[in-house]
């Protein structure tokens, strides 16, 4: 029976110990929300793709903050929450502008498909944000 549980225990142990694995999990969850909302808004409600991307990213904003704070960086200190949220919000607006600029470039200028363009944009921004979160926003437990 222990042999069957070994892979699960290993995965849980890796999740608990690896900041990067937790970041990928949290970011992947938020990215899934973004991509699904973008697809639904564009495909079923005929919303302009940049407006849909803005709405999707805004809807996942709180979930993303909570996942990064409590799951990724395991920061349960509430004394810095307002400051962290303010910094996170500023980074959100910069990320939103960059995401929309990348989407416009990929879709309008390079003629890429929307959903793969959104995924690539999210991955590029996530790489930069990881270090910003770790160094400036969630410093106590990173």
Low confidence ranges: none
Alpha-carbon distance between the two ends: 35 Å
Count of domains: 1
Mean pLDDT across all amino acids: 90
Task: Give the % helix.
Answer: over 70%
Number of strands: 0
Q: What oligomeric state do these chains adopt?
A: single chain
Major β-sheet profile: none
Radius of gyration: 17 Å
Beta strand %: under 5%
State the order of secondary-structure elements, H for helix, E for strand: HHHHHH
Q: What shape does the CA trace take?
A: globular
Structural class by secondary-structure content = mainly alpha
- Helix count from the secondary structure assignment: 6
Detailed description of the structure:
- The protein is 84% helix and 0% strand.
- It starts with a helix and ends in a 5-residue tail after the last helix.
- The mean pLDDT is 90.
- It is mainly α.
- The chain has one domain.
């Amino acid at each position: 029976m222990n042999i069957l549980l070994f892979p699960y225990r290993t995965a849980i142990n890796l999740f608990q110990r690896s900041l990067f694995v937790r970041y990928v999990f949290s970011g992947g969850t938020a990215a899934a929300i973004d991509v699904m909302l973008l697809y639904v808004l564009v495909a079923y409600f005929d919303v302009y793709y940049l407006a849909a991307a803005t709405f999707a990213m805004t809807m996942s904003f709180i979930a993303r903050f909570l996942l990064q704070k409590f799951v990724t960086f395991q920061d349960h200190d509430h004394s810095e929450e307002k400051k962290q949220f303010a910094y996170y919000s500023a980074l959100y607006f910069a990320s939103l502008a960059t995401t929309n600029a990348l989407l416009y470039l990929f879709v309008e200028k390079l003629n890429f498909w929307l959903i793969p363009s959104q995924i690539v944009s999210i991955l590029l921004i996530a790489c930069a944000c990881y270090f910003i979160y770790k160094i400036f926003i969630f410093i106590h437990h990173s």
